[in-house]
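Hi Y.,

Following your request, here is the sequence exactly as I used it, all 233 residues.
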Amino acid sequence: MLNIIFLSAAKANQVDKKSAVRFDPVIKNIEGWKIHIDPALLKGKHSTDGLHAIKMLTNHLQRISILVQGEALKKLKTCQIWLEHSHPTLHAMQYHPSVGWLKANGHDPRLQKKVHVPQAKALTSRGQLLKHPAVILHELAHAYHDQFLTFEHPEIIAAYNKARQKGDYNKVMLYTGQSVKHYAMTNHKEYFAEGTEAYFYRNDFYPFVRAELKKHDLDLHKVLEKVWGSAQK
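Below is the corresponding structure, written out as tokens. Let me know if you'd prefer a different format.
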């Protein structure tokens, strides 16, 4: 999920009247990533939940460290993550490219350019894991897209436009067996992140895995192979 709305500086500065900063995070290095952790997850009544959430986040990052290789992994590890116990208004995991959106909506501007886990319990949710086992990879793919490829990357946009025009994603199987429109058709950013899930691990929409992706959308597969490197070894 990606939050991005372009706003005027005047509107963005309106939230300066009321601070959106609710805590100062504790910074830890986990599997080579800088993680900004809500102190409520480390001490007090939520510390057990915090222990489980951090353990699961570590599990995600360990898998990513095996799946992504070389220079791409080095760059990916510079993309930071913000983990909090329970954000009052945000629920889904997301990436924040725009400080303007954060300020205008009353959120901590330090979330800019970070993958955000607003509800720590989502990391240990059985339903979330069944649906979206590569959710952290998905959000880190957004960060990589923004910070290293740019959202104007021509090959990603071209592959997305071609796929949208062909209509091959308009009715696909969801992990539940339902036929739905693929979330990748939201925009070229979600197209890249959803494709990355299938390329390296498993997505919740068909094509679920890399072999299916290569058959269903060879253009995207070629772009992902160029961006991330081979996933065959």
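Residues 173 and 184 are 13 Å apart (CA to CA).

Thanks again,
Q.
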